[in-house]
Amino acid sequence: MKRKLFLSFFLVFTLLLSACSSDNAGTGEGGGSGKLDIFSWWTGAGEEDGLKALIALFEEKYPDVPIENAAVAGGAGTNAKAVLASRMQGDDPPATFQVHGGAELNDGWVAAGKMETLNDLYESEGWNDKFPESLIEMVSKDGNIYSVPVNIHRGNVLWYNKKVLDENGLQAPKTFDEFFQVADALKEKGITPLALGDKEPWTATHLFETVLLGTLGTEDYQKLFAGELTWDDAKVKEAAETFKRMLEYVNEDHSSRNWQDASQLVGNGEAAMNVMGDWAKGYFANDLKLAVNEDFGYVAAPGTDGQFMVITDTFGLPKGLSNADDVKKFLGVLGSVEGQDAFNPLKGSIPARIDADISKYDQYGKDTIEDFKSAELAPSLAHGSAAPEGFVTKVNQAINIFVTQGNVDDFVNSLK
Ligand code: BGC
């Protein structure tokens, strides 16, 4: 225990040190070095490819504005968010940073008075009718807009290895009952049914929230976050039971893998399925060089057909920067059709804009663009849209305990 604690301190210390010692040590200039430092957690295959394409496009358009990729590794911002918090507290904000639309932005940095409004940018770029209203709402508070969505990720996707299912005469499951039937059949043949990598606990939260959505449906799922349904409701317990049952089918070494390592198990056929946001598609395609609908397939996670767990990565303008005009140039590129179409086909997400060039997207992207238009939309908990960061951190801790101990009542009580 002590050793673990020491390692955690050491990690945070190292991260803080590396953030301070970069040539960006700041003076409120969006990096201080005069460079535009673009802060995110996109360092993995697909994620990084998308970011680099965006930066390259910016450099082509503004060769005189030096720009720097200041990404900090760790899925779902596991480490980046701590580094960002310390920079923001020290009045050393990055030029712009990745933040999820919804509570993470609005109840976090906006409520803390750390963000500039971007109403004028939306006006000058003519963006007000170029993003879906639902998305603009996610980046607005009290009638002001605070960030620019670069994408829409779908969280509730079940990915599967086509060959593994085909060879075993199995169809991708659409309901929980089907899931358990398929999982039993696979287990009998010695194949790991479900890949999980919860070394970073958010991946288990991610799986749980899709089970929650599949069990409660969009309306009740949303009621949980509006305080209209309590966390010890019978349906939440049912979801916890189902989640627990699903955990019986995961790879034994789940706690030593991250989301990429877990996706890799599916990609190379060591496991049959995983539930992950569609950044996994960016990983399958860019890292493992697998083809959509040939090597791997996708369906909505069990019970969630017609529902869309929305995750949107957005970038805003921190207060107090002396190079705000340059930051707005970057946001202008990020919010443009060209920018979104350079970024999203690599990232695995769909464009946030409604007028993007659909021909640039593979079949998964095309299907998802269509699904988004008609599906019921639900905000992701694991990815900061449904509830503020402090709550998400506590849920991650509760899930982490639940994965090892499996006590439904304790789990539900801690959620409550
Ligand atoms: C982000 C994605 C990212 C994923 C894994 C999510 O929270 O929204 O952009 O790819 O985490 O790092």
UniProtKB/TrEMBL annotation:
Residues 1-25 form the signal peptide. One of its GO terms (cellular component) is cell envelope. InterPro entries: Bact_solute-bd_prot1 (IPR050490), SBP (IPR006059). It is found in: Cell envelope. Its main location: other. Pfam families: SBP_bac_1 (PF01547). The keyword Amino-acid biosynthesis does not apply. Keywords: Signal, Transport. Belongs to the bacterial solute-binding protein 1 family. Part of a binding-protein-dependent transport system for a sugar. This is Probable sugar-binding periplasmic protein.
